[in-house]
Amino acid sequence: MSNVQSMLTTAAMILLAIISLRFNSAVTETSSADTNNKVYLTAFSLADNLIEEIKGKSFDQTTINFPTTNPASLTSPDELGPDSGEVYPYYNDVDDYNGFKDTVTAPYFETYYISCNVQYVSASDPDEVSSTQTFYKKVTVTISSPYLDHSVFLSSIFTLK
Length: 161
What we know:
There is one protein chain. The protein has one helix at 3-55, and strands at 101-105, 111-120, 136-144, 152-159. By secondary structure, the protein is α+β, with helices and mostly antiparallel strands. Strands 1-2-3-4 form a four-stranded antiparallel sheet, covered by helices on one side. The longest helix is centred in the N-terminal third of the chain and has 53 residues, at 3-55.
């Protein structure tokens, strides 16, 4: 084999190695993005599942049997949360979920931390927290995990009207 053939063979091997490294890098990046998407999708699904569960509950403890036209008769903002003796999963109204926390381990062994916050909000601005009872409650579910770059937040407004 001549020197020229040896150099061409060496150059071809180097080119093949570079192409292989680039291909492996692209596959690894795609796999990482795919895993990241699955983790965020799972987090969003957990938040959505809790919101859907809450939708099946009464607006307030005082409206389980009879609706009210007086917001002052609703649970005080300072008393939002489960009533004495109420434990998850036996909550019966929206504000019982205030302060709710849970930990979920998913199929691929990633751990998610769920927390929920319930607040009265203004009828005209759902981002304005009300210090008094209103016919509007904002539920915010937060999902965090060591596998997430940032937490996932999902909010929904519940109304008695």
